[in-house]
Amino acid sequence: MTGLTMNIDLSFLDNNAIIAMVAFVFLYLTYYFSSDFGFVQHWNKQLSNQTGSNEKSIYLRRTIGFLLLGLIPIVIILLFFDRPLTDYGIDFPKGTYAWLWFLAPTLVFVLGSVFRYGKSIDLSYYPEVRRTTWDRKGIWINSGFWIVYLLGYEFAIRGMLFFSTLYEFGLWPAIFINSVIYSLIHIFKGSKEAYGAFFLGILFCLITYYTNSIWIAVILHIILAIANDIKAIKETANQAVTK
Asked: For 163, how many CA atoms within 13 A lie in the half-sphere containing its CB?
């Protein structure tokens, strides 16, 4: 019997864009299922009889997200990518109209919040932290951990992933890949979040491209996350009063 020789071409793995896509999916899945880690389960078990156990568990998860999606992608870029770290959007926004890329979306978000003032928010998800009472300190702590997590998250998806696919495939393929992945991440929150994330992903990628920086997308994402939580906190409080 003549042996079969299999010539498998693995040269495609020596490609920054492929590495970035595989790494992002793996790292995000690891973050998403981090509650299955032994040390996390042990931590949650230790907290189960303490006040605020849900809150502390979520803050631990956001910290893990920062480590997985923020620090590890930096290491990947430094060790395996052809371009320097500065080519992945960590510089401050550049360009004559960079300020407009921040001001215009911010104005749209603010106007959108005003016109949607009377509409309810999905309280089955927001706020993620389930506190019985909220004070300023609690809101600040929650916001701080959102900032920590989103710094890592945005660097992974709009820094490592977007710029590596941009250099390899061009602008619109990179935007499509990024927005599809961003939308899929939000499917568990329902159809409105998933569709909204797709178009928001396009906007964030365009901002990142035209300013050559992730920082405006980072700030806008942080504003959205904190604003959603604050709106949900107020709505929950109003419902409790009316009961």
From this structure: 26
